[in-house]
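As described in the Methods, two query proteins were run sequentially through the folding procedure within a single session, without resetting any intermediate state between them. The first query and its resulting structure tokens are shown here.
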Amino acid sequence: MPPKRTVKRVLCDPAAPQWRNSEGQPAVQTAEDYSSLRPEYTHWSLYANTRETSIMSTINPPKALLFDVFGTLVDWRTTVTHTLSTQAAHALNSPSASVPTSVRLFASTISWPDFAQEWRDTYKAFTASQLSASSKKSQKHAFKTVDQHHHDSLVRLLADHNLTGLWSADQLHAIAQIWHFIDPWLDASPALHDLSKSFILCTLSNGNVALLRDLAAHADLPFSRTLSSEHFGAYKPSPLVYNGAAEHLGLRNDQCALVAAHLADLKAARDCGYQTIYVERVDEEDWGAEEVMAARREGWVDMWIGLEDQKVSLGGLAEIRGRFAVGNGYVGGRVWGGIADQIKA
């Protein structure tokens, strides 16, 4: 296993106490302020909006941005809920469908948004159980893909809600495949196209490879590499995934930054030496409010993009693009020939 990252943090969150003055106001407003606080950083960049100032050192910018996908790049909740509700309506109203009367009754009262959330929650329990199983070295562990889980868990959930028979076997298979065609957050595609000019862009998701490739094509997400937990026979937050991804890219762990809307994922990546970028998305964070506040105070997230920041930049990934100043030839406060050029070198 590669050593844990020992370099000094290259990004900071000015909301943390060490970046505030005695009156509680941000202590860093100008280049001179930053130089006086951290004189060892001679190259720096300053991105400011009305809410927060974020500072990034160019001593060690990431060469690769690796992205969690579900919730971070794509809005699974809207797409899955819409699919379930429209397919249920189609089955109930189809003259050729033979849906049992009892199933019709239960289907008329089901909350499809709640059902979609339950379906997503089974995925979280599934990956946790797979992580536990893979950690028991005395047992042989057969890797099960997320595609397989989505189908099996849909069948179980329908049975739990007395909805078995609402859809045929072929229809169930098609509905389970909706995870291949989730619509993106509006900021995802345009920001990734810009970021791809300066960084290696890569998925790092628990979704299987076929699913991720379909998603990228459907949502126009321009990844140069598709990496999945499937490649490493383990699910995040296993270190095998983060370490394996960096090795696959031919990079040190500290040359990689994970972008995610889930702090648990980022914490595991950070423990493996990754840089970390948090993009808050509505209803995506599993940690409670106190845990989130503690994580922000502790400052182990290198770049923190809250919902308040996105009001100005029109989206989390657009905010990343802005802080890296991608698009005007600047990354991290100095002109690069392009970080992509350094990667090729």
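Immediately afterward, the second query was submitted; its sequence and tokens are:
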Amino acid sequence: MAHQVDAKRMLDERGYEGAVIHNQNPAHLLEKGVRDRVTESYYWKEQCFAINEATLCDRAVEMTYLGGTYGQQKPTAFICLSLKLLQLMPEREIVLEYLQQKEFKYLSALAAFYIRLTFDSKDVYLTLEPLLGDYRKLRRRTKDGGYALTYMDQFVDDLLTKDRVCGTSLRKLPLRSVLEDLGQLEMRESPLGEELDEIDDDIPQSDSASHSDRSASFDSSQHSFGTHTRNGA
């Protein structure tokens, strides 16, 4: 009962005094319009009532798509459960377990979205970047009520590079290069780097030299062409 009272108080606009994330009421990390549509929805009232971290998993594994709102501004189960997570504020270890388990991809996506909303900038990069190598297919609900195909790596890339995902604005995330310059992150190596090095190692020296000669010849012709063009102009 106490949990239900705390959850209701979190959604109250007046005098919230509970735990904060990024110096604000956690529920307010979702836009007010989105929160209002969620709390007025059938799914929220019927499926999100009095659930905890464990029973939330039961709801999450039933999801078959992600997204914000669609059709007549109807909220998806994904965005409803995102607000519920903001209410519950589970321990970090639980969120990471949601993220790293491999059986339920929409539970991983839900955790990634929550991490983007709530973790510090450095930890957002460190925690989500490994999923840039996760190519599981996901369905995304579009505004018109249809579906679009996406992938886990694309969804995570959107979280790291865009200011608006799943129909709601996200907290501004500093560029990775800025955090690198500040010494908070090490430079990220491309996962293709080692493969490219192996390909270079496999090229015989004669082929490599021939390739260099062709490149030099091409560069020379390009320079000559550019010169003629500029002279002609």
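Confidence is low (pLDDT under 50) at residues 1-6, 217-233. We note this only descriptively and draw no conclusion about the first query from it.
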